[in-house]
Amino acid sequence: MKKLVLSLLLVSASVAAQASNEAVLQKSLKPWNPLSIESNSGVVTLVMNEDSVTTQIYNSVIRMGVCGPIWLNPQKTTYLKNTKEVRVLNRYAHSGFVFENPRSSCNEAGRAKGDGSELVIASYTHAF
């Protein structure tokens, strides 16, 4: 019985974290007007209103839209906590970039000096 209650608590916390991620991202990504924001099994997928996601668009979305809430509000401990990757895709959800381990990667990028944050973000990025 205790295991069942514990399992239910963990599932509800996970669902709350996903809802929290989506709410925070909905607000922070408003300037880019994404077509959709979905969170499933530790993967957040952002479908942008662009035919092609360029490196400039990707870097802006990651720095200001994804990492910005962590840097501006570090006490939000559940935001992206259990997220493995953030996919930033074109309007067809066919191509784009993937940002790995966003919580720790954003923290590392936030500590970087000068243009170092772009290098940190690039080191945790691969093509989709």
Task: Set out the fold topology.
Blueprint lengths: L1 H27 L7 E5 L2 E5 L7 H12 L1 H5 L12 E5 L6 E5 L1 H10 L4 H8 L1 E3 L1
Parallel strand pairs: 2-3
Antiparallel strand pairs: 1-2, 3-4, 4-5
Helix pairs in contact: 4-5
Keywords: Signal
Write structural notes for this entry:
There is one protein chain. With 128 residues, this protein is an alpha+beta fold. The protein has one domain. Helices cover 48% and strands 18% of the residues. The protein contains five helices and five strands; from the N terminus they run H-E-E-H-H-E-E-H-H-E. It has a five-stranded mixed β-sheet with strand order 1-2-3-4-5. Helix 4 runs antiparallel to helix 5. The longest helix is centred in the first third of the chain and has 27 residues, at 2-28. The protein is globular. The termini are far apart.
Short description:
The chain is an alpha+beta fold. Helices cover 48% and strands 18% of the residues. The protein has helices at residues 2-28, 55-66, 68-72, 102-111, 116-123; strands at 36-40, 43-47, 85-89, 96-100, 125-127.
Number of domains: 1
Helix content: 40-55%
Q: What characteristic shape results from the CA principal axes?
A: globular
The neighbouring-strand order within the major sheet is 1-2-3-4-5
How many angstroms separate the termini?
43 Å
